[in-house]
Amino acid sequence: MTSRGTTKLVRAGEYAAEVEVELIDGDAGWPPYLSVRDAEKLDDVREALREGDLEHAARMSRVFRLTPIEA
Fold first, then answer.
1. How many of the other CB atoms lie within 10 Å of CB of 41?
2. 55 φ, ψ to 5°?
3. Are the CB atoms for 17 and 57 separated by under 8 Å?
4. How does pLDDT run across 19-51, given as a tens digit for each residue?
5. Cα distances (angstroms) measured from residue 5 to each of 24, 31, 56, 66, 71
C-alpha cells in the first residue's frame, strides 16, 4: 500500500478551501481512497466554511473568497 499527497477543493457558499490530503493506493477496494482522518478533515473544513468560521477553516486549509465576475 502506498500513499501520495494531493489537494482537494471544498466549496461552501462564497468560500472555497484547498485541503491537503493523502490518497491511499492499495490492491483491495476502490483505490485510490482517503483515510477516515482525511475524510473527516474535509468535512470539518466544509462545516467551518458553512458556519463562517474562517479562522478554524484556515488552520486546516488555504481559504479563498469567491468573487463572481460580470461578463
1. 19
2. -65, -45
3. yes
4. 999 999 877 777 888 999 999 999 999 999 999
5. 9, 14, 22, 25, 36
Residue spans of the domains in the chain: they are 2-65
C-alpha cell of 22? 493523502
Burial 5-21 (b: 16+ CB within 10 A, else e): eeebebebeebbbebeb
Measure Cα distances from 60 to 9, 28, 49, 51 in Å: 12, 29, 11, 15
C-alpha cell at 7: 489537494
Question: What single-letter DSSP state applies at residue 71?
Answer: -
Q: How far is the CA of 66 from the CAs of 8, 21, 39, 54, in angstroms?
A: 16, 22, 23, 13
pTM of the model: 0.86
